[in-house]
Write a structure and sequence with these properties.
The complex is a heterodimer. By secondary structure, chain A is α/β, with parallel strands linked by helices. Chain A has helices at 23-30, 55-65, 81-92, 97-100, 111-126, 145-153, 174-182, 206-218, 237-249, 261-264, 282-296, 303-312, 315-345, 353-356, 369-378, 399-411; strands at residues 37-38, 104-110, 137-141, 159-163, 165-166, 171-172, 189-194, 222-227, 254-259, 271-277, 362-364, 381-382, 388-390. In chain A, the strands form 4 sheets. Chain A has a 7-stranded mixed sheet, with helices on both faces. The longest helix of chain A is centred in the last third of the chain and has 31 residues, at 315-345. Chain B has 2 domains: 14-46 and 325-408, Aspartate Aminotransferase, domain 1; 75-309, Type I PLP-dependent aspartate aminotransferase-like (Major domain) (Aspartate Aminotransferase, domain 2, 3-Layer(aba) Sandwich), CATH 3.40.640.10. In chain B, helix 6 (140-147) links the parallel strand 3 (131-135) and strand 4 (153-157). A 7-stranded mixed sheet of chain B has the order 2-10-9-8-7-3-4, with helices on both faces. A two-stranded parallel ribbon of chain B has the order 1-12. The chains are: A alpha/beta, B alpha/beta. Chain A: Residues 35-406 form the Aminotransferase class I/classII large domain.
Chain lengths: 414, 410
């Protein structure tokens, strides 16, 4: 038989190179400067500058590793029932009308990204029972740069933005946000952030949330909540989940993507949850979710979800865990206060109250491009565009350097 | 009024429904020959001894952190997994033109591969490139590629029900008539659901046509080691294609051969013409991963990486794999013997000729229904059985029941 030569050309010739999604992190790793500080990371880092283990988590992982009753089986597509049940209760509260009325189902997902991706595909295939519906979806301006990509990949091409972060006030301008929502087409999707916004860390007060929810009801807008760090912002699980619970109490249908990365320190295990609160037709929607899950990852990974389920179902563990979460929230608040104090002492016309107003990991300084570049290139302080940063990476060793550098960035003629 | 008011109920996946029905069945003699997971002779799932060992090592290792893995996954997992598929001495690896993406099981690997191909293969965003899957194939293949946006998913002839073997002529014919650059999903070994693999000579013929017509080979490798008990033997087809100069994808699953069904350990191995092409491909795959699950889970990958990279553990693992494969081979041999001894009409050579977890018994839907309803033996409507569901305790009952089905039900 005639042996054919393979073509010398690659079938991948037309593939364009995509610059790294995490270029900033790679630049930081390569940076050899002794004073370098990474304030652009996603994870919570402790005072020692590393991500921390929750002792409780370590203990439970050891138990799981030696438990002879746990067997290797394919888990259900939608995840461990005990996990989804507890995750749902955590978000909505045990007595939530949605739970009592059996109008909610949950899906264990591969992290919060997995939850958003699944939610996006579910909405795309189910929303308004029209297979040709493709948007719009409203995201906050700014938001995590991968969000738009997730919705577009799911087929929701029409991505628009509502005004959120206001550089003037260094906070959320609720007026603008509400106005943009009021002008949005009826029945469009809106991504809302409970428990802290990435990258700005901005929060809305309960009064603000009431106004937003009112517009959502009036214009029949569909809320897709991202709750990435329940408990880490205020220190209270209930308080951080309030916006979601409030919308449920108003009778709204909604999706909520939850992450257990931050509040359990289980980043690598990819523990996420997609909550679906509906008015009716639960089983059918759930079956569609199953169908989509089968094409994404078939069924989710067990390890992390087992840890979370074990903690959430055990009263003693639950108390232990809530304490850890509170401690993280308190440390973040303490760092914010110290940073504000340092900056205040360094002088200048600026006000720093906006630093301590919200809680949680992220904080935004509203720096311009040149100022951010100055900090990265000249001071080896890595932060996100707009001058947003992860406060947990600030500690007693680098606080002065960071404060002085920010002061310098603002005062220099750049 | 609900936005979701008119969403239709999706049809349940057959194999899960089968398991659910099995669970509800109270009959003490019930047997589950449905879902594809290994079972011991006691009918229990099996945690591989090496897995238990490494699990404990991981739990006791206080130097490990919980941070996000890189988007493409744990580096030592990716490289050692690709070596398992392509061989330690693979020239392609030496040429730095092999890369990988850690994925959520075999499904995840197929998903990322499909999403990439839809965006970048045969033009950009060419959703019309035909995808060929074997007739029959694992039922999820169709859904994964369809969900990735491909519009034209076609069967290629594979199973010859008449002769209970490979329809090579039909297969080669479909390869010939496929539009150039079509994508073919090939089962690396232990074809699911038929258990029928091409011989080495047949693979050579398949490769030859694919080369001539520039057809893309996307291997699905979920049973390496599990099929013959030998890792290298089970990887022969993939390695042959690489040696013939093919650029290809291989979706690897470690669910079965590590018994890690629930930690979702998969690897998409990419073989490109050169390092430059490889890097561009991986860079685009990273973008796809970022918007799908962002970072893969660490537990299973760590476990596999430690095992593959530690000589004593690697040896122990190969041994554990052989234990599973040997039990399957034993059940195959015994089932065939018993059917022959019973004088069950038809030939039963295919039971031992087929390889891996599954056997396409050749039973027709009526006979299958008889087994399920009357004998409480659960198998797929296609006649597919999971050999792992057989044990020394139930094999007589199953053989007798098959005999009954074949002789009384037409």
């Amino acid at each position: 038989m005639h042996q054919h030569e393979m073509s010398a050309r690659s079938v991948f010739d037309g593939v364009v190179f995509m610059p790294s999604q995490i270029k900033l992190l790679e630049d930081f790793k390569r940076d050899m400067h002794p004073d370098k500080v990474n304030l652009a990371g996603r994870e919570y880092v402790g005072e020692h500058g590393h991500t921390t283990w929750l002792p409780l988590v370590r203990k439970i992982k050891q138990q799981i590793a030696t438990d002879p009753t746990l067997t290797p089986e394919y888990p259900p597509n939608l995840g461990i029932p005990e996990f989804t049940r507890r995750a749902t209760e955590l978000a909505l509260g045990k007595d939530s009308p949605a739970i009592v009325e059996s109008r909610v189902f949950g899906v264990q997902t591969v992290g919060c990204t997995g939850a958003v991706h699944l939610g996006a595909e579910l909405l795309r295939s189910c929303y308004c029972s029209s297979s040709s519906w493709s948007g719009p979806i409203l995201l906050s301006s700014p938001c995590d740069d991968s969000l738009a990509g997730i919705f577009k990949a799911a087929g929701i091409e029409d991505v628009q933005y509502y005004r959120f972060w206001d550089a003037e006030s260094n906070g959320v301008c609720v007026e603008n946000m509400v106005r943009d929502l009021e002008n949005a087409p009826e029945q469009c999707l809106v991504v809302l952030f409970a428990s802290g916004h990435r990258p700005t860390g901005a929060e809305l007060s309960q009064e603000d949330w009431k106004r937003v929810a009112e517009v959502m009801v009036k214009r029949q807008l569909f809320p897709f909540f991202l709750m990435s760090a329940q408990g880490l912002c205020s220190g209270s699980l209930e308080q951080d989940a309030w916006p979601v619970r409030h919308c449920v109490s108003l009778g709204l249908e909604l999706l909520c993507a939850q992450s257990f990365s931050y509040n359990f320190g289980l980043y690598g295990e990819r523990v996420g949850h997609l909550l679906c609160v509906l008015k009716q037709n639960l089983l059918a929607v759930q079956s569609q979710a199953e169908k989509i899950v089968q094409t994404l990852w078939s069924c989710p990974p067990m390890e992390g979800a087992r840890v979370v389920a074990t903690v959430l179902s055990n009263p003693a563990h639950l108390v232990d865990w809530q304490e850890s979460v509170k401690a993280i929230a308190e440390r973040c608040m303490l760092i914010r206060e110290r940073l504000r104090e340092r900056l205040r002492l360094l002088g200048g016309p600026w006000h720093w109250d906006h630093i301590i107003k919200p809680g949680g990991l992220y904080c935004c300084f509203g720096l311009n491009t040149q100022q951010v570049e100055f900090l990265v290139q000249k001071k080896h302080i890595y932060l996100l565009p707009n001058g947003c940063l992860n406060v947990s990476a600030i500690n007693s060793r680098n606080l002065d350097y960071v404060a002085e550098s920010i002061h310098q960035a603002l005062s220099s003629k750049l | 009024m609900s936005i979701f008011g008119e969403v239709p109920q999706a049809a349940p996946v057959a194999v899960f429904k089968l398991t659910a029905d099995f669970r509800e069945d109270q009959n003490p003699r019930k047997v589950n020959l449905g879902v594809g997971a290994y079972r011991t002779d006691e009918g229990q799932p099996w945690v591989l001894p090496v897995v238990r060992k490494v699990e404990k090592m991981i739990a006791d290792d206080h130097s490990l952190n919980h941070e996000y893995l890189p988007i493409l996954g744990l580096p030592e997992f990716r490289s050692s997994s690709s070596k398992i598929a392509l061989g330690e001495d693979s020239p392609a690896i030496k040429d730095n033109r092999v890369g990988a993406v850690q994925c959520l099981g075999g499904t995840g690997a197929l998903k990322i591969g499909a999403e990439f191909l839809r965006r970048w293969y045969n033009g950009t965003d060419n959703t019309k490139t035909p995808i060929y899957v074997s007739a029959p194939t694992w039922e999820n293949h169709n859904a994964v590629f369809s969900n990735a946006g491909f519009e034209d998913i076609r069967p290629y002839k594979y199973w010859d029900a008449g002769k209970r073997g490979l329809d090579l002529e039909g297969f080669l014919g479909d390869l010939e008539s496929a539009p150039d650059h079509s994508i073919f999903v090939l089962h690396a070994c232990a074809h699911n659901p038929t258990g029928t693999d091409p011989t080495q000579d047949q693979w050579k013929q398949i490769a030859d046509v694919m080369k001539r017509k520039s057809l893309f080979a996307f291997f699905d490798s979920a049973y390496q080691g599990f099929a013959s008990g030998n890792l290298d033997k089970d990887a022969w087809a993939v390695r042959y294609f690489v040696s013939q100069g093919f650029e290809l994808f291989c979706a690897q699953s470690f669910s079965k051969n590590f018994g890690l069904y629930n930690e979702r350990v998969g690897n998409l191995t990419v073989v490109a013409k050169d390092q430059d092409n490889l890097n561009r491909v991986l860079s685009q795959m990273e973008k796809i991963v970022r918007i799908t699950w962002s970072n893969p889970p660490s537990q299973g990958a760590r476990l596999v990486a430690i095992t593959l990279n530690t000589p004593e553990l690697f040896a122990e693992w190969k041994d554990n794999v052989k234990t599973m494969a040997d039990r399957v081979l034993l059940m195959r041999a015994q089932l065939k013997e018993k059917l022959k001894a019973l004088g069950t009409p038809g030939t039963w050579e295919h039971i031992t000729e087929q390889i891996g977890m599954f056997s396409f018994t050749g039973l027709n839907p009526k006979q299958v229904e008889y087994l399920v309803k009357e004998k409480h033996i659960y198998l797929m409507a296609s006649g597919r059985i999971n050999m792992c569901g057989l044990t020394t305790k139930n094999i007589d009952y199953v053989a007798e029941s098959i005999h009954e089905a074949v002789t009384t039900v037409q």
